[in-house]
Amino acid sequence: MDSLNPEHPPVTAAPAGRGPQVWKFWGTALWGLFIFAAMFIGQIAVVAWFVLRQGGPIDIATAVHVVGGGITISLSVITGLPAVLAALWLAIHFSRTPFADYLALRWTSWTNVAIGVAGLFVLVMGWDQLSRASGREVTPGFMVDVLKSARADGALWLLVVAFCVAAPISEELFARGFLYRGWSETFLRPAGAILLSSVVWTGLHLQYDWFFFGEVFSIGLWLGYLRCRSNSTWLTIVLHGLNNLGAVGQTIWLAG
Length: 256
Fold this sequence. Notes:
Elements: H1 25-52, H2 60-67, H3 70-95, H4 99-102, H5 110-133, H6 141-152, H7 156-184, H8 189-203, H9 210-230, H10 233-254
């Protein structure tokens, strides 16, 4: 969609060292693996620290209890953000394209904001109704357990920061920022880039079951469409954060 927006013409590809360029299919895929690895290392470092600080022998039960703790998960998500930013900076630095331009870090119209909020609301409500109709829990059990743990440790505020600020920024810059930008300027075109980046983004949510996988994937498609329509990753970051805030609020309410 960037190529259809006269206000933000695409950066034309050029040989390395001879001007700005956009990583194409394989360049985006390989750098994407590097960025994902950075995110994983940034997050797992916190988990490892919490496990090791327990002292004494470490068994499976102890490790699972620590890893599933609200504070552990919150801090791991937060520390993943600077790791993602550093990896993105490195990948984009070698492309010789300005960081903000590459990731479409520009605001959009309030019309696009209103469309995004309305569409997201309809989508989430539709999945909630489908969940109730099929006799399922509206909120994943994983979310309830993490919230109860964070609340017991007095770290509910940290969970909100992690899920509603750090996670949306990390995931949107990775999926709708970097992956979409590169893949949309290949044979995939915007439609294929929306689809493939949504598949990758859904794969980041392995804590959910198949039903919630479907919900995450559909939200990814909607956010991808909005990224294409608005040429703004800030829009998808804000909407992602609002969606997560609503999910946290709903979980708090349902958990009593």
